Structures are given as C-alpha cells and as structure tokens.
C-alpha cells in the first residue's frame, strides 16, 4: 500500500452532523471517501440508498440500514455513537405519494464486534436499527443482501452507489446519488477491491453499497487511496448483519486419516457422526519433496455447539472432478445447501502415479439437523504455511464446504501440494423471511430535512498499514449510463443445453426466468454467452453463469443457454 494521505470514504454533511447524528466535535466522522466519474441515479431508482450523517447507507430490510463502522466510531472502534439517523432522499411519503421529499428516521446503532481488531478498518460494518419501519413512512423497496455463498469473483462487474464528491481527484462537489460500474480487482474475506484511476470512490461514499447483477448488496464502502477502493464483503458479516446466531465449535479433535489407517484415496469418512471438517493436515513422502502431498494425514473435525442433534440429518457422496467440477477453481459449488464436508476422496490424473493426488474426486457432504442453509461464508487463504501444519483454516463457527487446490510454481502441473483456499460457511437455522410492509403508526412522524453541504477532511495514515488484497490486473471498466437497458436482438434461448467452461461470473437469480440471465449478459461487454441453471440444481434459486467465450455445447436437462449475436 502506498503511504501518505488516504481518503476514508466519509465526507461530512455539516448540517446533518449538527442536527441528525449529534456527533461530538472530535475525530469521529472526519475520516473519509463519492464516486469520481459516475452517472446520476434516475428518479425512482435505487431509492433505498440514502445517507447517515456524512456517509452513504442502504436500507436492506424495512427496519435495518447497512453502513460502515467508521461512520459512527473512530477508525479504531472507539468513541462510538449508539444512536443515528438515516435519510431517504427524494422519495414518496406514504401519506402523500404525489410528492417527493427527504425523510429521516432515527435508530439504534450496532457496530461489528470485530471492527478494527484485525487491522485498520477491518470488519468496517455498522447497522442502524430503525425505531420505525421505513415502509411506514416512505414508499421505498429495500435492497436485500445477496446470499452469502454468492461471493464476487475477480473480473466481475459490480455497481457502486454513493452520495460523495465527484470529478478528477474527487475535487468536484457532490451531485447527489451517483452510480458507476467497475470490475473487481481483488476479492477476499477481508475486502473487495477496485483499482482504476478514473473510476473510484470519493469522500461521502463511505458505507455505500456495491450491488451485483442480481440487484443485491455484496459489499460496504470502507476506504480509498488514490485509484484503489476497498469495500467490506457482506458475505463475511451476513449472520451478524441480520442477527442470525452463529454457534461456536465444540468437541474439536484432529482425526488420524492416512496415519490412522484410513485411505485418503477412497470414499472414506473423516469426521465422526455429528462433526464437520474445519482443517486438514496434508502429508506425503518427504524424501521425494517437502511439498509432496499424496495423502491427507489428519483432519480436524468439530461439532456445532448447542446443536439440536449430534447426528447427521443427511449424508451423501458428491462427485467433484468425476462430474466435471474443477477442484483447482473457486467456481461452482460442492456440497448441497446447508451441508458441510465430512470426507474426501483424492484422485490421481489419468496415467500418473496412483498415489499422486492432483484433484479431489468426491467429497462426503453431511447436513446438521435444524440448519437449512449456509450463513456467513468466505474464502479463507490457506497456502503452504497452513496446508502442512495442524492449524485452523476456518474461523470459529464455520465449516468447510469447498476447497481450491493449488500447486507450487514450476512443479508438475498434475501436482497439487497445497490447498490454496478453503471456503468456510457458518450455520444458519432458517432463511431470513422477506420483510413485509408494516402499517403506519399513527403516533409516528418522520422528520423532513434538507440535503446539506459537505466538508472534507484528509487524515494521515500510518506507514505500516497495508491492504489485505493483492493487486491484480483490472479488466475493462465502464460507467453505467442512466438509460434503461432495452431488450433488443436475438433472445432465443436453447433449452436443455449447457455451455461448460469459460465462466467468469455466476449469481443466483431473483426469479425463475432465464431472460434475466440473458439481460445480465447483454449488459456486460465481456459476456459472450450465458447458461441458465434451473432451481434445485445448484441451490434453491435459479442461477446464471456468464461466459467470456463460447464453448462446445452439451445436452443437459439442467440448463438453458444463450449465445450473444
């Protein structure tokens, strides 16, 4: 990370500071980041994106507003305000829908308990719990969080929204709510990063959302330096944001696998009944190479604290490489929804030594009773340092659902001595219900406040602060224009047809409609084709896969595909 002046997405609306938030005259709220070259958001679009003091924020349910932790605290998680106010701008009030005005609602503030504890501005999340449902005073639809297992990939284009400064070097004043589309430069459990000299966040965008092509929130604006913008992923904090309990591990133990006589090249169960995988210890013939890993030596398995049952509700072997899913990739999904890995069957490449283990052929996935879906989910970096040691991979409360195998540079391409990343998911007892509008309380009156001016402060950042995301070459980016996308050209979709491979982005669809997938492909210049996967195949929802080239067609009843003309 470059040292020097860093703008932390947070320009200050002076009037709102005095009237709305009650911030003290200290350093709270004086560290910053608006969208540099965005397009104005048309009237009636993205109405759920508003402001909290000098920050941007998003109404994600009728009662919850998501923003950044540093919007209510200093950047070390101290001196936090426990009350705040959320303003919806230019919306229609329930009691007079013929007009548009700003509506402000107060609420209690929650700050993520890990905010700032792993490093500067890490886990930079806040939630404002409104005193009254927004639906009781404003005709606004919340923008919901994306399901936590749908994590953005590098190269995927997301929409940034905010109220901040604009122009070159963020030197122009705010023009109201702006949006722009930028390709993801880095994606990890600690942050989603964008790097572009012209398209980036500015002061005033802190706490604002990034939205995927399905129209769901996947990140919260945290900080910016020069052309780099960092957002905190909602997938990691999903359970905390929606107040879903996350049970801790219990009865953890390292189970001898190959060292205990269990064949890691067969359909062998690793974890005892009621336990789930949290880490592995890879072993091999050290006389051949320190990095050789033909077998799994040990597996760490943990139970769920307070689980309703200490038995698995369901357990099954799921084909991975044997079904065409690449175990050297983060794409796709291994276990069924709500299940976790409890056994692994290592395979060898055709023609290679039978003890070579370059791929994962199958995994045993087991579902705990009473937990229907995954909660907070993230890809955790593992690498050589953790692959061969008895060390934790997932954080407490999360279990492994998928792996991404890597190899050491220069080694045989069939060699997979390390696990590059592990996908960890927390438990989730039930799907959060869709919020329904609440009746208007007669005693409640929303306060109408004007949009105020902004003031910019530039803090000096310590030299030892570094980004947790490795910079990667950014794909072409473009500004989203406010014009609506029209459905022109050939929309013929081929039923029962799959286009395997060439995937660069995937996401759940909000409705069982293949034309939503086609529309997403049409909006993205990188997209050459797309495949629509029916509900119940890769999850409860229909899923869309965007492809940057056209691969060979394959008949498959699971899917329908479309090729861009």
Strand and helix layout:
Blueprint: E1 4-5, E2 12-13, H1 14-21, E3 39-40, E4 49-52, E5 55-59, E6 64-67, E7 83-91, E8 101-111, E9 126-130, E10 157-162, E11 178-183, E12 186-188, E13 191-195, E14 209-211, E15 217-225, E16 228-233, H2 234-241, E17 249-256, E18 268-269, E19 275-283, E20 295-304, E21 312-319, E22 340-347, E23 359-368, E24 373-381, H3 383-387, E25 398-406, E26 418-428, E27 454-455, E28 460-461, E29 494-498, E30 503-508, H4 514-523, E31 529-533, E32 543-547, E33 554-563
Antiparallel strand pairs: 1-28, 2-27, 3-11, 4-5, 4-7, 5-6, 6-9, 7-8, 8-9, 10-11, 10-14, 12-13, 13-16, 14-15, 15-16, 17-20, 18-22, 19-20, 21-23, 22-23, 24-26, 25-26, 29-33, 30-32, 31-32, 31-33
Describe the structure.
This protein is mostly beta strands. It folds into 3 domains: 153 residues, Thrombin, subunit H (Beta Barrel); 180 residues, no CATH class; 70 residues, 3-Layer(bba) Sandwich (Hepatocyte Growth Factor), CATH 3.50.4.10. The chain contains 4 helices and 33 strands. It has an 8-stranded antiparallel beta sheet with strand order 3-11-10-14-15-16-13-12. A hairpin with a 2-residue loop joins strand 4 and strand 5. One of its GO terms (molecular function) is serine-type endopeptidase activity. Pfam families: PAN_4, Trypsin. Belongs to the peptidase S1 family. Keywords: Disulfide bond, Repeat.
């Amino acid at each position: 990370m470059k040292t020097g002046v860093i703008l932390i997405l947070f320009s200050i609306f002076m009037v709102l500071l005095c009237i709305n938030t009650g911030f003290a005259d200290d350093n709270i709220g004086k560290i910053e980041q608006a969208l540099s070259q965005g397009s104005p958001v048309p009237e009636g679009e993205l109405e759920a994106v508003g402001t909290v003091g000098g920050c941007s924020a998003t109404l994600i349910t009728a009662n919850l507003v998501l923003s950044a932790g540093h919007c209510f605290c200093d950047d070390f998680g101290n001196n936090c305000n426990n009350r705040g106010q959320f303003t919806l701008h230019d919306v229609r009030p329930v009691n007079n829908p013929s007009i548009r005005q700003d509506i402000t609602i107060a609420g209690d503030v929650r700050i993520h308990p890990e905010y700032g504890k792993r490093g500067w501005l890490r886990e930079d999340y806040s939630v404002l719990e409104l005193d009254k449902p927004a639906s009781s005073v404003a005709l606004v639809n919340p923008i919901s969080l994306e399901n936590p297992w749908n994590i953005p990939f590098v190269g995927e284009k997301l929409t940034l929204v905010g109220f901040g400064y604009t122009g070159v070097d963020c030197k122009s004043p705010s023009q109201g709510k702006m949006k722009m589309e930028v390709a993801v430069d880095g994606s990890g459990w600690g942050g989603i990063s964008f790097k572009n000299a012209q398209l980036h966040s500015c002061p005033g965008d802190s706490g604002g959302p990034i939205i995927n092509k399905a129209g769901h929130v996947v990140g919260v604006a945290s900080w910016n330096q020069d052309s780099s913008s960092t957002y905190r992923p909602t997938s990691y904090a999903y359970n905390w944001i929606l107040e879903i309990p996350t049970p801790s591990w219990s009865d953890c133990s390292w189970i001898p696998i190959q060292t205990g006589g269990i064949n890691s090249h067969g359909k062998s169960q690793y974890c005892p009944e009621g336990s789930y995988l949290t880490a592995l210890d890879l072993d091999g013939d050290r006389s051949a190479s320190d990095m050789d890993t033909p077998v799994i030596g040990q597996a760490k398995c943990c139970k769920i604290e307070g689980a309703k049952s200490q038995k698995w509700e369901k357990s099954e072997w799921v084909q991975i490489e044997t079904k065409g899913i690449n175990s050297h990739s983060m794409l796709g999904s291994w276990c069924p929804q709500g299940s976790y890995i409890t056994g692994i069957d290592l395979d060898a490449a055709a023609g290679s030594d039978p003890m070579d283990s370059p791929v994962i052929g199958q995994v045993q996935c087991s579902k705990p009773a009473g937990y229907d879906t995954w909660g907070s989910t993230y890809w955790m970096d593992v690498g050589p340092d953790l692959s061969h040691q008895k060390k934790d991979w997932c954080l407490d409360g999360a279990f492994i659902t998928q792996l991404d195998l890597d190899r050491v540079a220069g080694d045989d391409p069939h060699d997979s001595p390390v696990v590059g990343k592990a996908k960890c998911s927390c438990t989730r007892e039930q799907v959060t219900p869709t919020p329904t509008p609440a009746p208007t309380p007669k005693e409640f009156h929303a306060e109408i406040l004007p949009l105020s001016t902004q003031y910019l402060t530039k803090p000096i950042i310590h030299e030892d602060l570094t980004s947790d995301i490795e910079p990667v070459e950014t794909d072409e980016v473009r500004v989203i224009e406010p014009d609506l996308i029209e459905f022109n050209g050939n929309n013929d979709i081929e039923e029962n047809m799959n286009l395997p491979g060439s995937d660069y982005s995937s996401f759940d669809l909000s409705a069982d409609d293949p034309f939503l997938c086609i529309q997403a492909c049409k909006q993205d210049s990188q997209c050459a084709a797309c495949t629509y996967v029916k509900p119940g195949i890769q999850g409860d929802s229909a899923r869309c896969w965007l492809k940057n080239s056209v691969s060979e067609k394959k008949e498959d009843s699971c899917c329908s595909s479309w090729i861009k003309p």
